[in-house]
Design a protein that fits this description.
By secondary structure, the chain is of the alpha/beta class. The chain has a single domain, classed as Rossmann fold, CATH 3.40.50. Strands 3-2-1-4-5-6-7 form a seven-stranded parallel β-sheet, with helices on both faces. Strand 5, helix 5 and strand 6 form a beta-alpha-beta unit. The radius of gyration is 18 Å and the shape is globular. The N and C termini lie far apart (47 Å).
Amino acid sequence: MSQQPAPAPAERPVALVTGAAQRLGRAIALDLAAHGWAVAVHYRQSADAAARTVAEARALGAPAEAFAADLADEAACAALLPAVAAHFGAVCAVVNNASRFDYDTVDDFGHAAMERHWRANTAAPILLARALHAHRLAAGGRGAVVNLLDQKLWNPNPDYLSYTLSKAALEAATTLLAQALAPVLRVAGVAPGVTLLSGPMSAAEFERAHRLTPLQRSSTPEDIARAVRFVLESPAITGTTLLVDGGQHLMPQPRDVLFLAQDD
């Protein structure tokens, strides 16, 4: 989309939210826009949806712009944050929300599936954190990274094997990046529960899955967006993960909730 003149960098802190054209990334971007942030809306293919997110953020009074990049492509990923900084003048935060989520199990696991998930879900967040660190070193001041994880890392089951392994690696990377990039950057995680209908799950199955927690409700997009903003705005939080899942991680489950919520 055509780019509009950017505001002066001092007006609002700028956050890059990956996968912000729709679903959870959109909710995060709009929550930040409503609470004093300028937002860079990253997308891979959903240009029309990204344009709508940008329009909604601007309607909230926030500077916003869309940026396309295939995060599985190392060169494209490396170019993303410099492009956002060139437009806005400075970037304070990265929210690594974009994620690949394909089904596999140990029976059909292979190098190709693992690599696809690794590139999008693990390597890209590391590259973007590194880029933000270099940018903040040059610009002066500090910044923050929030990685979107998954409650199933604390409540494991073997479904979605490659996805789960890539998120487990990202959870470990959250700790390592918090160590390596301090004091310039804080790095923390937010782990949602059953937040949005996905994959082959029906609306009725989603409602059942959403209630399979001690609180009898899992997370909503608004819950996750609020948690992300809390971490970004809390200067003493780093190297840890906030589980926002209604306590789902406290209930051992042998299968993914998709299967547990299906009709008999």
